[in-house]
# Entry
Amino acid sequence: MHFVEDRRWDGVTGDEALAAAARDEELSVVFLADAVAMCSPLRPLLALDLGVDDDEDLDPVYYQELIDSPPPREVRVVPEAVHMVHGNLQLANVDFAELVEDAAADPDGVVRDVTAVPASPGPLPHPGP
# Structure
């Protein structure tokens, strides 16, 4: 994972980030802290799928539906879930479409780390003798 902090990237669109990142064959996903992320209390980063575009070689006779409706290439991810998302994509435990489905089922429309332990409201009460 590479972190980039550079004011020249302010205001970059998802398509511009995808085009720039596509040069690095090692990357599978890019996370952007865009204006939406900075203004939302959840701080959901924009995750962009760098999966290979194989639809150029698809035969329209058999794959017209896939050609007409390409899979989504972006989803919002809360910061706590970035490592989980990145790791699972790298290991091919999930594909990007599954992450999009998870976000669609979430009330806030984001991917969350389901393995994260929720913050404790404080110490557990100690039972008396």
Observations:
- The helical segments are 14-21, 35-39, 60-68, 82-90, 96-105.
- Strands lie at 29-32, 45-49, 74-77, 110-111.
- The longest helix spans residues 96-105.
